[in-house]
Sequence to fold (377 residues):
Amino acid sequence: MKDKIFVTRPWLPPLNEILPYLENIWNSRVLTNEGRYLKELETNLAKYLQAKHVSLLNNGTIALLIALQSLGLSGEVVTTPFSFVATTHCLSWLNLTPVFADIEPNSFNLDPAKVEAAITKRTSAILGVHCYGRPCDVVALADIAKAKNVKLIYDAAHAFGVKHQGRSVMLSGDLSAISFHATKVFNTFEGGAVVSHDDELYNRINLLKNFGIQDESTVADIGLNGKMNEFCAALGLVQLDHIGEAIVARRLHDDFYRQNLANIPNLICPPWPANVSPNYAYFPILVEPGFPLSRDGLYEKLTHHNIFVRRYFYPLISEFSMYHNLPSATEANLSVASSVSRRILCLPIYPDLSLAQAERVVGIIADSAGLTQWKSL
Ligand SMILES: *Cc1c(COP(=O)(O)O)cnc(C)c1O
Fold:
């Protein structure tokens, strides 16, 4: 049996590059709480992401939770069902009611017209996701948020390093939350961040991630422990030195898949939109009805060959038991998301995927399409 290929594999720097940082952590005994590496990483990330403020957190879910909490929301939040379940769970943790709006068929992101239609008197915010690192229609969503006087937050877990017309996608909306989980484009083992542009919000986020403690004798809010530790921050500093090469390596695989899958009938490789500098975080394909195998058939076949592709995102968040009774969770309301969710498959993509491995993936897909000579396509 051939070796296992997963949909993603954590990217790590050479081990020797982290050792001097560890030595300093050991000697200083500063392990967490506003340490030297945390501050350095916040500064360097702000530069890389063109952001005013970056607050580091212990994971992406807590980053999103604290971002939402910092805005003092209530009532309903309009959001996408086509995401990782943490997106909606964060609303539930804050006793906010998720209202699902449908997505666009090409970007897989919230459809601004559907968002606008879903807004009521009870709506306090829009929570978008830059799915697969493809930016939401940030201009249209900002216009709606302004006109309806609601907040706009992005779950930017997939969008690290993505630019739209030369501008970091993290600059959109009131706040963006990022994940640095092991599987993401930029990882600190576990970690996350909130990008903010407003000093008051930035201070509130920093308060909330440290139990709400204002000073020795004042607790100003019901915060939690969202702090990133010095080990993760040091790892982030070393990772940031290598992010350019990691994204270039991803791009080569993206190019390879595109070139070799482009001519397969009834298989769509959604292109990156114009004016976007991508991070090549995911490689989604759509298995259309005319393809010889169903989406699940292709999934099973690849899995059988030790290629562990993923059906991101199937089921939809709105189909999980804690959400499926919401009025907005019906298939009629979410017809595009439901359709995409049944056709989507994400192929393995990560910096140290080998060409031979990518060829195995393409070979099996081409074979499923009845093409035995895929290399000459
Ligand atoms: C990974 C991810 C999260 C959660 O981030 P963690 O760092 O794992 O907590 C949230 N939303 C989306 C869209 C994600 O992909």
Notes: The CA atoms of residues 135 and 169 lie 7 Å apart.
